[in-house]
Amino acid sequence: MKKYFTIWSLCFLLAISVNGQSFQEMVDEGSAKVKVFYYPIEPFIYKDDIGNLLGIEKEMMDSYLRFIEKKYSVKLFVEWEQVPTFDSVFEYVKKSDVPSFGVSVISKTDERSKLVGFSYSYMPDVSVFITHLSVPFLKDGRNLKSHIDGFEAATMSSTTYKTDLDRLSEKFDLDLNYVDVPNDEDIIRLVSRNKEMVGYVGLPFYVIEIGKGYPVKRHSKFQVKRDGYRFIYQLNKGWDKSIQNYFESYLYRAEADKIIRRYLGNDYSELIWGLAGDNVSDRADEIAFLNKEKEIQSQSLIASEKQKEQQWTIIVSVSVSLVFVVIITILLVRSNRIRHRDNILLKEKSQQLQETLVELNRNKDEVSHQRQLLQIKNKELTDLNKQKDDLIGIVAHDLKSPINQMTGLITLLSFKSEKWDKEESDIFEKLEYSNAHLKELVERILDLESIQKKSLNYKIREVDISRVLKETVSEFKEKAESKNITIDSSKINFGKNVMVDSFFLKQVFENLISNALKFSPKGSKVSIGTETHHEFHHIYVKDEGPGISEKDKVKLFTKYMTLTAKPTGDETSTGLGLSIVKKYVEEMNGSVWCESELGKGAKFIVAFPKV
Question: Is the per-residue pLDDT at 406 higher than 70?
Fold first, then answer.
């Protein structure tokens, strides 16, 4: 019965600071200030709609503090404070200048034991491996390798979830692309939306979230058990004995199981403890959990079939009407001896209702069949698009090395240019130009591939867009002069601060200004400026080129698309610049669009929320 008296997945980190006192000094003085640091995850520690702090960990900590006050006759003054990240609490506890404690979804590891002390375990520590519901059941390592190799993996940095993924990947030689998220709930939501994503989560989070209808699957072959979640505390402050006394106290035994059941429910609590236990050789607890799991997921499937339920509601209504008509007919015949003519009429109406019912059933089957065909076609198109992107990415990677070699050879050839005649010089210039264009195309493809895989490392901070814009404009002065184009930047006003990555913002401006110069006729003007509209700062780049047709506007920001308009100075276009601009801007919480009429130039506008 001991297992029902420990806490399951304590998901917040909490530190108790006692004004520089050791435990014995606190007892001697009779009072102390207590500070609790936590990282919120529902239902373990969270705030309700009016700001009250609730959860398993909150109630368990209150229980511990009451024990300290009663057992040692001291008065504690408690203050709760949220920490920015889960793993930051270790530093809060370790570096605190007062004695500190902490509890959360904390597993005991050798590395962590060097930083803090660990109490007895609260609840079992079980991490379950999950995939999308569409992934077949993974029963062994070979099966695992064949189905999920190359998938993305959602995880939390500096946690045992990340450690479990690393070990799994190393053991079975998996190529997993990690995506960092703040909590278990986000891991489950990402996996439920992406059929090619996996992750480890705590067992109670899995149980809670599948009850909300998320289509995820647990693979019991790869779950990981540890020796339980625990309190942590600052070393060498004398709190060891008080923690031991609490865990062995009647107060803990009386309250712990009630708190867990209040938040997780009786059925889930029993199943979680059973699955986490050691005596499961007959697999009875695993079978019970699978049955409950199937029941929860069946409820989810029922919810997802709302449209079918509505159709069946119509069918049932018609059926009830049919039954009602038949009953009325019988009653009328028996009680009122209605005329034969009226009886025939009622039978005709019943037949019509029956035909309507048959037609509704036929239509339902046809709709279901068409939906299945659409799903198959959609998957085929998605697979073809992925294969195309993968092929382009592979080709781009393979071309990068020979292009760099060609660039080096061209540089060596340039040292001998003084000995060449005009024809040889012209050939060399064309070679140099073609190599530069090919290199630009490959780099843009690789940039786009990085965006799609979300492997770009954005460093979002407060930036004055006008400063970045001015700096970028100055770099295009020579190119504009070569085509006798005037750049009017007088409308750039400073003090337009937004939250962006300045490196990627500059690449956005470079693409837009380069395009404007590329499609502007000689002797024209390119206008660049900033504006503020409501809660957004705008940046615009306006040219006097040929403009953009309505047909071209539809595919303007699509990758590998070249438009009807042609560059005015024999420049070339990769068809990637604007698609990269759109990806960068949207990744930084902005918007980009174009205003243009054919023959009247084009105006590209980028907008970001004001700081």
Answer: yes
